[in-house]
Amino acid sequence: MTVVPPPRAASGALPVRLLTRVECGEELPALAWRAGAGWRMISSAVLGGGIGERAWVLNAQVSHGYRRTDPEAHLAGLAHDAGLCGPGVGLMTAADVRRYGHAHDGGVDAVATAGLGVRGWAAGPAPGSAAPPDPGTINIVVAVPAPLTDAALVNAVSTATEAKVQALLDSGYDCSGTPTDAICVAARTPRPGEHPDSFAGPRSLWGARLARAVHSAVRAAAE
Questions:
Q1: From CA 101, how far away is CA 109, in angstroms rounded?
Q2: What is the rounded CA–CA span in Å between residue 46 and residue 92?
């Protein structure tokens, strides 16, 4: 992958870099965050999902006709090519990741990419499917510069999702998201003797900041 300068200033706890690669004759970008050591992440991502220590996050754009059946291996290969080492989180989307939204609130940083071509309400009448849906996707990555318990990390995902839906409605979209939305919330690993925060709901200290950052980032990406 080739590293190019980011299209806008990236500051705070979540400085992302824009990478480019060529696949099947098509130039495709990706966003990479080299978090380094000292971060615990919760994610719904296909690569590195769940809760655990993670050192990086990669949000890779793929073609709209994406048909590979090994997205985890594909993302692992892209991360290796980008020089991302150790355990990390890999997300993918068909949206243009160069048009990402980035917001900062009280130490919390959020980055969002938004592909809204296929969107709707979560509680819809259509039957579910065991097959993975096509990538379109709103991908959200959040960095909280404080330690959170496992329960608070789950709470943070809920808060970020609420803020995402609020941002979509405020942007004029009649939907709660897309069928493939994914999220990653990173929080600092507790230092010896440090007590992690137990709450990350929208009225908690870090949850309120997270909600505002996600809301602003999704609104910027959805424009």
A1: 11
A2: 8
- The H or E element that residue 3 is part of is strand 2-4
3-state secondary structure 27-53: EEEEEEEECCCCEEEEECCCECCEEEE
Q: What is the pLDDT along the chain (223 residues), one digit of tens a residue?
A: 554 434 443 457 789 999 999 988 889 999 999 999 999 999 999 999 999 999 999 999 998 888 888 999 999 999 999 999 999 999 999 999 999 999 999 999 999 999 998 898 998 777 766 655 555 589 999 999 999 999 999 999 999 999 999 999 999 999 999 999 999 999 999 999 999 999 999 999 999 999 999 999 999 999 8
Q: Between vectors from CA 166 to CA 163 and to CA 168, what angle results, nearest 5°?
A: 110
**79: which 2 tokens?**
């991360």
Q: How many CB atoms lie within 10 A of CB 49?
A: 18
Q: What crossing angle do the helices spanning 150-170 and 205-222 adopt, rounded to 10°?
A: 40
Number of H-type helices and E-type strands within the chain: 3, 11
Residue 127: partners with Cβ closer than 8 Å, 6 or more residues away: none
Strand order in the sheet with 50-53: 50-53, 39-43, 182-188, 138-144, 108-114, 101-105
**For 102, phi and psi rounded to 5 degrees?**
-135, 125
Residue with tokens 């990741």: 97
